[in-house]
C-alpha cells in the first residue's frame, strides 16, 4: 500500500523509495538526492543528525517529532484504508444476504408454480375436449358386447365343424351356457396368417351381460383343453395405453420391493392393489373387469 514520503508528504510509488537503515521510514529517491535504492545502510538526514548530536543513543533510539508525526500520518492513512475496506465488506455482506433472501423466495415461488402446473396438467388429462370424450364414450359402449380371444388355433374353413365360428362356440360353451343366437359375429383381427402365432379373434355377443358372464368365468379354461387360450376385454386405444402404463408402474414398484401387489378392476377401472385385497374381492375382477366399461360414461382414465 502506498505511503507518504516524510520529506514531501506525497505518495511513494513502487520502486521509487529507499528506506532509512535506522528509522526504517521510506523516502523518495529524488527527495534525498539518490538515483537508486541499492545503497547499503543508508541513513536519513534526521537520523544522521541525531547520531552526531547523540552518538551513544543507538540502542535506545528516540524518534524525533518529525519521525513521530510521519508515522502518525501513515497510521492514520492505514486506518482510513481499513475503515474503507470494512465498509465495502459490510456493503457486500448486505448484498449477499439480500441475494440469499431473494433466492429462498424464488425457490418458494418455483415450487408453487410446479404444483400449479402439475394440477393443470392433471386437469388437462382428466378433462379431454368434449369431442374426444364423446368419441371415447361411444367407443367403450360399442365394445361392451365384445371379448377378444388369444392363442386359439387358426381354423380350417374347409371343414364346417372347424370354422372359427364353430370353434369359438365350443370354447364358450366350456365356460358358460350359451346359444348360437347369443354370438352375433366372430372375426379374426389382422390380415396375415401366422401358423406359429394365431391371430386374435374378436367375438361380438348379443348383450353386454353375456360378455360379462364370459369374463367372470374364463378361469374355467385353465382346467380344460383350452388352458393356453386367453380371453380379455375389448379395450379402446386409450384404455390399452392406460393399462400398459399401469403395468409399468406395477413392475417398477415390484422392483423396489413391493411384491405383494397386483392389478385389479374397481368400478370398471384398473387399479394397483395389495394381493390380500385382491383375494377378498374375488377372482373375476383380476386383470379383466367384471363390467369392463362400467365407468365409461363418467370417467376417462389417465
UniProtKB/TrEMBL annotation:
Database matches in InterPro entries: Zinc_finger_PHD-type_CS, Znf_FYVE_PHD, Znf_PHD, Znf_RING/FYVE/PHD
The Zinc finger PHD-type domain, residue ranges: 4-48
Keyword match Acetylation: no
Transmembrane segments: none
Compositional bias per record (Basic and acidic residues), positions renumbered to this chain: 277-286
Ranges where the record places region Disordered: 272-302
Coiled coil: 96-123
Keywords for the protein's UniProt record, in alphabetical order: Coiled coil, Metal-binding, Zinc, Zinc-finger
Entry keyword annotation includes Phosphoprotein: no
A molecular function GO annotation: zinc ion binding
Domain of life (superkingdom): Eukaryota
PANTHER family: PROTEIN CBG24663, ZINC FINGER PHD-TYPE DOMAIN-CONTAINING PROTEIN
Protein name: Zinc finger PHD-type domain-containing protein
Source organism of the structure: Photinus pyralis (Common eastern firefly)
Amino acid at each position: 500500500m502506498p505511503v507518504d514520503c516524510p520529506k514531501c508528504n506525497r505518495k511513494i510509488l513502487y520502486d521509487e523509495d529507499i528506506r532509512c537503515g535506522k528509522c526504517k521510514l521510506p523516502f523518495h529517491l529524488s527527495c534525498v538526492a539518490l538515483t537508486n535504492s541499492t545503497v547499503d545502510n543508508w541513513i536519513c538526514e534526521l537520523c544522521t543528525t541525531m547520531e552526531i548530536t547523540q552518538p551513544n543513543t543507538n540502542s535506545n533510539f528516540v524518534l524525533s517529532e518529525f519521525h513521530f508525526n510521519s508515522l502518525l500520518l501513515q497510521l492514520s492513512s492505514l486506518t482510513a484504508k481499513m475503515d474503507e475496506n470494512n465498509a465495502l465488506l459490510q456493503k457486500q455482506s448486505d448484498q449477499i444476504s439480500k441475494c440469499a433472501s431473494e433466492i429462498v423466495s424464488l425457490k418458494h415461488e418455483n415450487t408453487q408454480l410446479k404444483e400449479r402446473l402439475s394440477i393443470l396438467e392433471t386437469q388437462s388429462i382428466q378433462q379431454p375436449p368434449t369431442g374426444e370424450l364423446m368419441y371415447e364414450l361411444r367407443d367403450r359402449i360399442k365394445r361392451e358386447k365384445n371379448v377378444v380371444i388369444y392363442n386359439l388355433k387358426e381354423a380350417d374353413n374347409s371343414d364346417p365343424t372347424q370354422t372359427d365360428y364353430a370353434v369359438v362356440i365350443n370354447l364358450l360353451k366350456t365356460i358358460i351356457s350359451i346359444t348360437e343366437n347369443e354370438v352375433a359375429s366372430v372375426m379374426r383381427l389382422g390380415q396375415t396368417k401366422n401358423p406359429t402365432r394365431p391371430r386374435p379373434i374378436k367375438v361380438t355377443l348379443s348383450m353386454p351381460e353375456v360378455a360379462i358372464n364370459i369374463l367372470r368365468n374364463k378361469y374355467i379354461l385353465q382346467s380344460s383343453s383350452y388352458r393356453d387360450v386367453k380371453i380379455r376385454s375389448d379395450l379402446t386405444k386409450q384404455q390399452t395405453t392406460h393399462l400398459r402404463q399401469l403395468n409399468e408402474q406395477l413392475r417398477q414398484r415390484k422392483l423396489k420391493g413391493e411384491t405383494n401387489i397386483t392389478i385389479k378392476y374397481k368400478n370398471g377401472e384398473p387399479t394397483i392393489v395389495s394381493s390380500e385385497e385382491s383375494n377378498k374381492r374375488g377372482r373375476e375382477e383380476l386383470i379383466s373387469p367384471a363390467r369392463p366399461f362400467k365407468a365409461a360414461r363418467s370417467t376417462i382414465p389417465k
